[in-house]
Amino acid sequence: MDRGTVGSANRGRLQVDVRTEGRSEVVTPVGELDHHTADLLREPLESAVEAGRTRLVVDCSGLDFCDSTGLNVLLGARLKAEAAGGGVHLAGMQPVVARVFEITGADAVFTVHASLEEALSS
Length: 122
Description:
This protein is α/β, with parallel strands linked by helices and 122 residues long. The chain has helices at 38-50, 68-83, 95-104, 116-121, and strands at residues 14-21, 24-33, 55-59, 63-66, 87-91, 111-113.
């Protein structure tokens, strides 16, 4: 049975763009965030906090999938950013990703915005 790339070790399934916009570090993951791709997001989030960029905005609009490992990456980034006086804002979550946050209760511990524009203006 061919299941495509779901669950495969193909790290190309997630692309992460990072840019500074005003006082925020905008991190944009595109694709699938799971056990195999989590470090591709963890590394830029941790680097941003280490560099003093503690207001992290994760643009989730291009995120097609997020499992518990991906959720843990975001929770870890939240703890580090908050410890440094900042925070993590999630923006533009697709329904399938938002459902993971809703089921686990993680939506209650993040600041969630409907769009990137909203997150940047708050």
